[in-house]
Specification:
GO terms for molecular function: isomerase activity. Keywords: Isomerase. The radius of gyration is 17 Å and the shape is globular. 41% of the residues lie in helices and 18% in strands. The chain has 251 residues and is of the alpha/beta class. It contains ten helices and twelve strands.
Length: 251
């Protein structure tokens, strides 16, 4: 089986970053993570300083997120940031939808933004939650989005936890995304009715099967994220990394 480079989504440690930005990044790198989805540095820190810290600890920015449920961002500014930080070429968005017509209208906007990003050599991604698996007229929001967007302009950053919470088998859904899921958000789910977030390998998802599907569709990075944790979030990231290593999935 292919081994993957492993990155982290820092929303997992948002409180720790607010308290000790550089120290938290250092601890992520010490665990063994090679990549991170990261935005502009906190107030008072220049991008050049952020980049110097990342270079020193060996952590690569693989992409960034544009925001949540808003088109109020400048693709060129995001591309400029990725250029300056010598980062990867991915920018992701998440949206909410209230009707089939809303999905189709927003898909058109995604295509236009994806075209702008492509002119700057940045790949635009859509990141799902569970509500994209609700159906309008017998078709899920995510399936409509995938059909209505250009597969070269808008790709998917599938999230395994939210796919499961949406009623899908993450590996099976991933297999439908040939050449369309370069980044894969991996998070596990506890057994039981609550379905709380779990560290990778501590829940009910089969990550070896998920990794096989990721290999088949051309996924480039696995990105660990845990929205909430029953442990210290950095300890959760350490457990997830260790379990991925035991599974033989880490490059």
């Amino acid at each position: 089986m292919t081994k993957f480079p492993i990155a982290v989504q820092p929303y997992t440690v948002r409180e720790q970053l607010a308290q000790d930005y550089v120290g938290t990044l250092e601890r992520i790198a010490e665990i063994g993570y090679r990549g991170i989805e990261l935005g502009r540095p906190p107030e008072g820190m220049a991008i050049s300083e952020q980049k110097a810290h990342l270079d020193r600890i060996g952590l690569k920015v693989i992409g960034t997120h544009t925001g949540f449920d808003s088109f109020d961002f400048d693709p060129d500014a995001i591309a400029d940031y990725l250029d300056e930080v010598s980062g990867g070429r991915f920018a992701a968005i998440s949206l909410r939808f209230d009707s089939r017509e809303d999905v189709i209208a927003k898909a058109a906007k995604l295509n236009k933004i994806g075209e702008r990003f492509r002119s700057r050599d940045v790949q635009f991604l859509y990141h799902n939650h569970d509500w994209e698996f609700q159906q309008f007229e017998g078709e899920s929001v995510l399936d409509i989005l995938l059909r209505e967007t250009d597969s070269e302009l808008v790709k998917l950053e599938l999230d395994t936890y939210w796919a499961k919470r949406g009623g899908e088998d993450p590996a099976a859904y991933l297999r439908k995304l040939q050449n369309r899921c370069p980044l894969l958000h991996i998070k596990d789910v506890e057994d039981g009715e609550e379905g709380f977030f779990a560290e990778i390998g501590e829940g009910i998802l089969d990550f070896k099967e998920i990794a096989q599907a990721a290999e088949q569709v051309g996924t480039q990075w696995l990105v660990v994220e845990q929205d909430q944790s029953r442990r210290d979030p950095l300890e959760s990231l350490k457990i997830s990394y260790s379990n991925l290593k035991t599974m033989g999935l880490i490059d």
